[in-house]
Design brief:
The chain is α/β, with parallel strands linked by helices. It has a five-stranded parallel sheet, with helices on both faces. Helices cover about 55% and strands about 10% of the residues. The chain has a single domain, classed as P-loop containing nucleotide triphosphate hydrolases (Rossmann fold, 3-Layer(aba) Sandwich), CATH 3.40.50.300. The mean pLDDT is about 85. The relative contact order is 0.21. Helix 3 crosses helix 4.
Length: about 170
């Protein structure tokens, strides 16, 4: 098992916050959800942070938090964290798993978009989502040590695949 953090990356709706605690429990490691940690530290929701302080402020919070939480943890990273070069460098040194989902799966999981600050107008959600995925996909693929396609899998199956890859250190 790798001695560094196991970092889950991928789009919002890919399942990072759902499978992260299950993976952490399976591996006997602490789980940290970056968005939850930021919300707690700021005393407001991610949506409120975006509205009140802007995306660049939120990305600064992510950038500052990431080095502080590295260690023997399972970390659910924010969907846009890899847009920041310093975070790409840091995550490139970790055991990073890209939870890859198709647009159809993401749309189904994010129906309504309510608490997702980058998906402001429900009517535009599929276009916004597709644009974000197109921007982020290359970063996810480059940063990932392993890729797990999550579309047809249950959370338990996703965890089983991740554990298999981590223990076997297979692509």
């Amino acid at each position: 098992m790798p001695p560094n953090s196991i970092c889950l990356i991928g789009m919002m709706g890919a399942g990072k916050s759902t499978v992260g605690p299950l993976l952490a429990e399976q591996l006997g490691r602490p789980f940290i959800d970056m968005d939850s940690r930021i919300e707690t530290g700021e005393g407001r929701s991610i949506n409120e942070i975006f509205k009140g302080s802007g995306e660049s402020y939120f990305r600064e919070l992510e950038r500052n938090l990431l080095p502080q939480i590295l260690g023997e943890n399972v970390i659910a990273c924010g969907g846009g964290i890899l847009a920041q070069p310093v975070c790409r460098t840091i995550l490139g040194r970790q055991a990073t798993i890209y939870l890859r989902a198709t647009i159809a799966t993401l749309e189904a999981r994010l129906q309504g978009g309510g608490t997702r600050p980058l998906l402001a107008a429900d009517g535009l959600m599929p276009d916004q989502l597709r644009q974000l995925l197109d921007q982020r996909r290359p970063y996810y693929e480059i940063a990932a040590r392993w890729i797990v396609d999550v579309d047809a899998l249950s959370p338990a199956e996703i965890v089983e695949m991740m554990v298999s890859k981590i223990k076997g250190d297979s692509p």
